[in-house]
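Tutorial, part two.
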Amino acid sequence: MLRRLYDWVMGLAASRHAPASLFAVSFAESSFFPVPPDVMLAPMVLARPDRAWRYAAICTLASVLGGILGYAIGFFLKPLGVWLMTVTGHAGGMTEFKCWYDQYGVWVILAKGLTPIPYKLVTIASGLAAFSFPMFIIASTATRAARFFLVALVVKKFGPAMMPVIERRLALFAGILIALLVIGLTASHFLGGSGGGACAA
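Running the prediction step on this input gives:
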């Protein structure tokens, strides 16, 4: 089923309604749709390199707006938010998410918003945990823009030759970001002097 969805999204990238479809997929992926917008963004940038930044901006705007929907589901419709986390394989993850948010706050969104980790989990969990909405918007905008503009830049600059390694590069940057995150969290723990209990691994 996922493969059929993937192929369908790739077909949308070649249609005359591609920009509108890119917006819709980016919006939906932030709360419930399983296929990331990168699948559309990359071939669209290949076809029209002159519109690379426009397409990346569409992805960013739609993803953040979709993230607001995901946040609202978690905040206002908790049973639905819990159910969505359950069907995506994170039934017992809310306690850990809440623990991480309480201790590290915006760093969790900064780390997960840029990585291949499903962004929908971050948006719904943010609402469930009642995380600061303004900080959620700021962190989501920064990380989603960084991700999509990075994809657009790589595809625009290197073309088809880079297509097979885009996800690997994203994973590499994610690893660097997470390493920096761990260093920052460790430093804040020792410098801040306060700490709460440790979250489950």
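Residues 40 and 144 are 15 Å apart (CA to CA). In part three we will examine how such features are distributed along the chain.
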